[in-house]
Amino acid sequence: MQLDARHLAAELEGTLHGDPATPITGVASVDTAEPGDLVFAEAPKYLQAAMTGRASAVLVTPELAAAVPQPAKALIAVAQPRHSFVQVLKMFAPEQSYGTGVHPTALVGERVRMGAGVHIAANAIIAQDTVLEDGVAILSGVSIGAGCTIGAGTIIHPNAVLYAGVKIGRACILHAGCVIGADGFGYVQIGYRHVKVPHLGTVEIGDDVEIGANTCIDRAKTGVTRIGAGTKIDNLVHIAHNVSLGQACLIIAQVGVAGSATIGSGVVLAGQAGIKDHVNLGDGARVGAQGGVIGDVTPGVTVSGYPARPHGEKMREYAAMAALPEALKRLRAHERRLSALEAARAPGEPEDSAIHSGDTVRSESDHSSPHGSPSTTTGSAASS
Q: What is the mean predicted confidence (pLDDT) over 127-136?
């Protein structure tokens, strides 16, 4: 695919500065760009790097474009360069077309209902009473249990597994190896035996949800484990039974959410964060990487650390911890000084007498006679 800067600026509803005939043949990062590539810059230092690099065109803010009155490269000024860059990536992305129809090696059960344009690839298994809406793509080795519903336009990548009764919304992407609807981890201990608790509920995933490779979302004990519309879940995440996850959340790799946690909309859980069972995270809350949440989090608050606390408070705590070694050195020096003073105290003297005695000795030494004998006359006695 090839565009020129004039047509791309029009497509992005941006303002062009520089040569309108500049050819654009690809997209890249600033440090890997080659001639013909488009990059984006949101700050002056990145613009400087882009202007001295090999890229042919740069997406910038109007303010950055104004700072370069005669650009040597084509600048396309847009309100949000990062968002516009995503649009351009989509333009250059190869179109994925899976075709339609059922591969001869796929196994399709009884009473499976398929809409228009469904694709079922080699060695996929679709159990009975499942519904595949229009444009669903089931890729190689996928296993779908009985009674599932897959919304229109959803793509399920190779070797993903859906247990019976799971519901997937429209335009979802399930990556390779994810497992949706396995039993929750529930047991009752009787003596030294762990008796399994049946999990009779299901999993419901909203529209436009993306689930990363090898992520596991467990079915509810009773009721529903729910993933809200627009939520994006990274690879290697575990969502336990009966969790309720709101809309438009971002769940980063290796996060673990324990059973029956309630997480609001727009929540961000950074990598390796852990969420205790039965806690509530309000809308817009954020948990820093490796944060351990053991209690409720107020809407809009950012927490970090273990146990997770408001981020600013936790940073001050870390700063105080960093000062502890030096504080400990000072404390030990004071202890040594105190030990020396206590060692100098004569037997039977009060505990503070060593300090006063030391002061008296120094005072008498200061008033010694020229012959080396201590003066026995105080200043007040001499004046009388």
A: 98
